[in-house]
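The authors assume throughout that readers already know how a fold can be written as discrete tokens. In essence, backbone conformation is discretised, so a fold becomes a row of integers matching the chain in length. A single example would do more here than another paragraph of explanation. For illustration, here is how one protein appears when written out as sequence plus structure tokens:

…
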Amino acid sequence: MQNPQMFNSKISQIGFIYPILDSINQEIIITDTLGQIEYLNLRARTNLFSETKELKNIKEIFATLINKYELVDANELNLLLEKTFLPENFIGKTFKIKLLKTTLCHYMVTTSPVYDSENGHLGRIWIFTNITAEEKINDLRSEYISLASHQLKSPAANLRGFLATMLDGGFGNVSPYFLEPLTIATKSAEQLTELVNSLLNIDVFESGNLVSSLELTNVVSFLADFVEILKSTILPLPNIQFINQTDQTESFILIDSLLIKQLLTNLLDNSIKYSPPNSQIDLILVQCHPNLIIMVKDRGKGIPKNQQEQIFQKFFRADNTRLEINGSGLGLYYVKKALSEMGGNISFESIQNQGTTFTIEIPLATNT
């Protein structure tokens, strides 16, 4: 067991550290390796933890938070606590609490180990940052985007349909002089419609209005048929191959087939756009149970290594594609957001100018 005096003695060697911590405009707690509280800074003692400052253990403080306030993410908070007592762990997590059951507040909790060169792991520092103002701005921005997207949906669809009808000769023969500008206008209308639809899909997840429709589906034939239909509806015809790495020709599982089609369409659309013409793209069924695992592999431009951490951010586009290829920067954000809502995950491996492989993993519902 850790010497209870060791932590304090080490901290006391730097006599000015407590006044510094007290001057910081965030709630800060320092604990030893067992979670025993060594210090709360001034803001922690007078604000969020004013009624819990007599407690001795970080677990007791978290339990009190859960009991006192209406925590929206109480389970997430408990999971955070369980994962934080390993020396190598650095964890940041946002959770929501309703202070006094009236005001919704947002806090970012960050915890990191504290080390000493002689004694190794001494404990942890916990930083609670109130990000309510930032979240309100994000909410307002999302509301504006949602409203604008709904208002644009019908005009964009009408414009796209009108131009496509003109281009097909529905209003009479098109003069060769107008053929090129009409083609450009039609493609622009299609891009606008896709952007609006992407924003509306994202709004469904961010507003918490996702309604999942599960069906018992043979995932092997579902994916094979999906690839064939996709190949017949995209021009020029893409070279997409379905590869079944399982030993099964049939595997009936409960999935939301429409949602999975949307996710795979986003991934395959990216692969097609960022790959050379007729370059092979693989849709690979890796595993059916206990989780559904699907890979999308291309031989395209790849993602620059220094930008790979940003690839799932909303509206982000890599430098090697931004100027050459049209896109909204929403496809991968949507895929990650949707999978997160489903309890799934997405990962990728990418080498610039060699290609990218995305892997999605979806937990399966049980047929009860």
Observations:
- The CA atoms of residues 94 and 363 lie 23 Å apart.
- The domain at 4-130 is CATH 3.30.450.20 (Beta-Lactamase).
